Amino acid sequence: MARQNGANEDYVRPIRRLAVSVLILCLFAVFVLWRIDSPRAERFRAQLVDWVVPNMEWAMVPVTETVKLVRGFQSYAALQRQNRDLRNELQQMKAWKEAALQLEQENAKLLDLNRVRLDPALTVITGQVLADSGSPFRQSVLLNVGGERDGIKDGWAVTDGLGLVGRISGVGEKSSRVLLLTDNTSRVPVTIQPSGQRAMLSGDNSILPALDFIEDVDEVRPGDRVVSSGDGGVFPAGLLVGNVVLARDGRLRLRLAADYERLEFLRVLRSQPTDAIDAPLELIGPVMPLPATTAEVEEATDG
Amino acid sequence: MADAPSGFWGYRVLFVLLASLLVFIQLLPLDPGPGQFPGPDILLLLALFWTVVRPALLPVWLLAVVFLASDLLLMRPPGLWTALAILGCEFLRSRRAVLRNAPFPVEWALLAVVITAMTVANALILSIFAVPQPSFGLTVIRMVFTIAVYPLVVILAGRAIGLSKPRGEREALGVRR
């Protein structure tokens, strides 16, 4: 019996080692494939996440809410102080609100005078945050609105109502992933407002993403407003992103306007794709009409 | 191998359950956004501990499936960390004769070496393939944290699940009872 076992071992061990080596090679091949054909691999990942995470929602929601409740109790002590501060702030805000109302009326009048039509295509879809990225090195959240059901597309901008949060990167059937501005791989072209400087907002896993490639650093001051510039057609222009701050490391960074501590409901902006130019003939001039319909065309151009 | 002892599958199912629980906790949308301290990689610790204590109860294929799933769900480059975890576990498995009688500090030191090697290899391969990586400091913090937490995992797992090093002759199959 014992010897038989031993004999078995002699066969099993090399086979096992071979199997393990093959397995590791396969896994490495998966990694290399992911590196080579990242979009396809990421689509597969999005499908898997789409399949798994919404199924866990029934368990996730109660746990999340319970933890939030406990945290709420812990912050009870700070509540009174916060209340007082908020009252003060409210007082100041009322003055601002008055100013804003006046400005709004003025703006409406001016728009009416100029007969400006606001773009009706810029509508939003609101989604709820389902899950975190799960890793401290990846800054993304999962929304419960997806491609097939809600028509979400890759690349659309996401805000929390106040400021830009990130963009859609990876769409499943019922869920979609939002790459936050703070992610290592996030790059967004922005404009720094009073001076009109163009810059690139690049996330680096910290709460304050860095502003790179500023044309003239001297013209930028901490506190300047930063909006998306719309360069490259990634985002609609003019979305508020945040304010410039001078970080402790001496770099110009951005304090985000969106409340990253409380990402709960996010708005996905439906951007319209720019029209593709696929009809070069019509661009050059009217297409030569067919002999039968010549009269009709002439009539149309006359009218 | 032929006569699978009772609890053989139980421990496997338990491992899968624990792994899914860990992934579930990490996916909870409690603190989205950056600024958190990177916590320890408990799933890796669990796999390594399981390998040290009961190599027979954690087959390689199960390890591969669990780690690949966590790679995909937690937005890591798929496959690489799985391959490294399997290599680490196989290394520990091949040293099980040494580990069985080693005192705890030796075991801990060996694990620290394995975890460090895995982290370095991961960073190296990612940089060779030009994959964007988190900053070096964060990675090191996570690694040190992971190593530091190992005794806690040993105590918790030992108390709660009843996993501990087998003593005497009964460990031939690596199973208690």
Give a quick rundown of the structure.
The complex is a heterodimer of chains A (303) and B (177). Chain A is an alpha+beta fold and 303 residues long.
Descriptive notes:
- The complex is a heterodimer of chains A (303) and B (177).
- Chain A has 303 residues and is α+β, with helices and mostly antiparallel strands.
- Helices cover 41% and strands 21% of the residues of chain A.
- Chain A has helices spanning 2-36, 38-52, 57-74, 76-114, 147-150, 280-284, 294-302, and strands spanning 124-132, 140-143, 157-159, 164-171, 176-180, 187-192, 197-202, 210-212, 225-228, 240-246, 252-256, 265-269.
- In chain A, a hairpin with a 4-residue loop joins strand 6 (187-192) and strand 7.
- The relative contact order of chain A is 0.10.
- Chain B is mainly α and 177 residues long.
- Chain B is 66% helix and 0% strand.
- Chain B has helices spanning 8-27, 42-53, 60-73, 80-94, 96-101, 104-128, 136-160.
- The radius of gyration of chain B is 17 Å and the shape is globular.
- The chains are: A alpha+beta (303), B mainly alpha (177).
